[in-house]
């Protein structure tokens, strides 16, 4: 048995940028949506209110140090920073650039390229949405520029590896039709710079995409089961959900159903890293159309951690990776950071679950 290597996705959208000022209004950050959220049904826990870190600004290096200390307390190995590259244009890159330039916090990290277009309403494409910035791919020269831009991070001793290879992900792996060319270029360049190459993973929320992602040449799949909870239910259930959505009514799902479904669906025999959520509530961004889990508790979060960790325990330590989505995605309600309601409970429960696994 081995303890899991827990890595938490990290969202850098907590400081003003010129683009967000233009698209969403002066001073917009992720907190803008979080603060304006309202309960949509009886028992709906909104708005989410942060705990000891407050409504922070990630330009504050002290906050980033505090985040790392809290993550260590929870047994987390490192952060997986969302990375934004649009054919040579980087967005939301200040935080990670400062992490590389300053060497602080002294906390491991890897990157996941959020390779999708941005739309006006919900960040995801929906009917009538205005395109803000399109994700395009510039071919061989762009892939080389992309590698060179991120080379200081790849050479950083804090960068997380799997069997010596740099761990790098793609949010929308099936959208990237030149992945084999990209991976060949990046691995060749890595070797030229004395690096062992990359372990590329593709992120998905659907088990049905596993074979497609692996066939495209990725080394592994990171699977998040949140949206699978409703997609695998009865036709009648999905019909009711569709009607309620059309009527502008929320359609919440019990967190315990997500916990049970995630544990039952995860197959440790596949090239699969599970991604588990302490909660999920997209309503601050998309209102009643958003996916909403409700009645999450630290105890149920512990049940999910135990169930997944037990299933991955037979893996070698290097390959026993479990992602958490996420450390601080407050606008989607999936965060581990302390909040006003539960304090440190979710972080402490995670550490207890990790410690129950014997090396």
Q: Quickly name the level 1 CATH class.
A: Alpha Beta
How large is the radius of gyration? Answer: 20 Å
Mean pLDDT: 92
Whole-number total of structural domains: 1
Percentage of residues assigned to helices? 25-40%
As a percent range, the share of strand residues is 15-25%
Question: The CATH topology, please?
Answer: TIM Barrel
- Overall structural class, as computed from helix and strand content, comes to alpha/beta
Query: Judging by the overall fold, what is the CATH architecture?
Result: Alpha-Beta Barrel
Biggest beta sheet summary: 8 strands, parallel, barrel
Structure explained in plain terms:
This protein has helices at residues 18-24, 30-36, 61-73, 94-102, 140-154, 179-192, 210-215, 228-231, 235-246, 255-265, 283-286, 298-312, 345-355, and strands at residues 5-10, 78-86, 89-91, 109-113, 118-119, 131-133, 161-162, 165-170, 198-204, 220-224, 253-254, 272-276, 293-294, 321-324, 328-329, 334-335. The model is unreliable at 123-127 (pLDDT under 50). The strands form four sheets. Strands 1-2-4-8-9-10-12-14 form an eight-stranded parallel barrel. Strands 5-6 form a two-stranded antiparallel ribbon. A two-stranded parallel sheet has the order 11-13. The protein has 359 residues and is of the alpha/beta class. It has one domain: TIM Barrel.
């Amino acid at each position: 048995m081995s303890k899991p290597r827990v890595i938490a996705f990290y969202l850098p959208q907590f400081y003003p940028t010129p683009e967000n000022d233009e698209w969403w209004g002066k001073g917009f950050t992720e907190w803008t949506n979080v603060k304006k959220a309202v309960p949509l049904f009886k028992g709906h826990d909104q708005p989410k209110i942060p705990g000891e870190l407050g409504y922070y600004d990630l330009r504050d290096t002290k906050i980033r140090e505090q985040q790392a200390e809290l993550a260590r307390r929870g047994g987390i190995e490192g952060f997986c920073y969302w990375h934004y590259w649009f054919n040579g244009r980087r967005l939301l890159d200040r935080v990670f650039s400062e992490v590389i330039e300053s060497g602080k916090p002294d906390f491991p990290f890897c990157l996941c390229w959020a390779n999708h277009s941005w739309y006006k309403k919900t960040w995801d494409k929906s009917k009538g949405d205005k395109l803000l910035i399109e994700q395009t791919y510039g071919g061989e020269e762009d892939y080389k520029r992309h590698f060179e831009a991120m080379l200081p991070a790849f050479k950083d001793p804090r960068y997380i590896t799997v069997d010596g290879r740099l761990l790098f992900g793609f949010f929308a792996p099936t959208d990237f039709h030149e992945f084999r060319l990209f991976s060949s270029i990046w691995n060749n360049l890595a070797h030229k710079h004395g690096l062992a190459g990359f372990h590329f993973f593709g992120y998905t929320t659907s088990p049905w995409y596993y074979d497609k992602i692996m066939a495209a040449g990725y080394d592994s799949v990171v699977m998040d089961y949140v949206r699978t909870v409703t997609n695998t239910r009865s036709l009648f259930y999905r019909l009711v959900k569709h009607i309620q959505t059309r009527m502008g009514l929320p359609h919440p799902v019990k967190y315990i159903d997500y916990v049970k479904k995630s544990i039952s669906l995860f197959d440790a025999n596949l090239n699969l890293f599970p991604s588990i959520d302490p909660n999920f509530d997209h309503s601050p961004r998309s209102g009643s159309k958003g996916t909403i889990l409700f009645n999450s508790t630290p105890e149920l979060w512990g049940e999910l951690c135990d169930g997944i960790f037990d299933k991955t325990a037979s893996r070698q330590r290097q390959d026993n990776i479990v992602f958490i989505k996420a450390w601080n995605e407050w606008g989607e309600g999936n965060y581990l950071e302390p909040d006003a309601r539960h304090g440190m409970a979710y972080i402490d429960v995670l550490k207890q679950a990790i410690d129950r696994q014997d090396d």
